Amino acid sequence: MKARVHVMLKTGVLDPQGEAVRHALGALGFDGVEAVRQGKVIELDLAETDRAAAEVAVKAMCEKLLANTVIERYEVELV
Predict the structure, then answer these.
(1) Half-sphere exposure (CA, 13 Å, Cβ side) for 78?
(2) Max CA separation in the chain (angstroms)
(3) Is 34 helix (H, G, I), strand (E, B) or coil?
(4) How far from the centroid of its chain's Cα atoms is residue 69's Cα?
(5) pLDDT band at 35 (very low <50, low <70, confident <90, very high)
(6) Which DSSP symbol is given to 4?
(7) Would 44 disulfide with which of 2, 3, 18, 74, CB 3.0-4.6 Å?
(8) d(Cα 71, Cα 9) in Å, to the nearest integer?
(9) Can you tell me the distance from the alpha carbon of 55 to that of 19, in angstroms, rounded to the nearest whole number?
(10) What is the dihedral of CA 7, 10, 11, 14, to 10 degrees?
């Protein structure tokens, strides 16, 4: 089973990388971009075959390592 984890900064947390991308897009002539939030996608290949157990395991991974839950939110997608 595969899992895809989307990690993004929480609303209200400053995103300097996103702001740098927004600025660079403007410099390239893409003037209509008002805001950019940058995140990360983590793909995991799991040996687990039970969907519910896989989701529990991946959420535990996120809480312990993959996301800084103080400033980031995450979404787990099992594929």
Answers:
(1) 15
(2) 48
(3) coil
(4) 11
(5) very high
(6) E
(7) 3
(8) 6
(9) 32
(10) -100
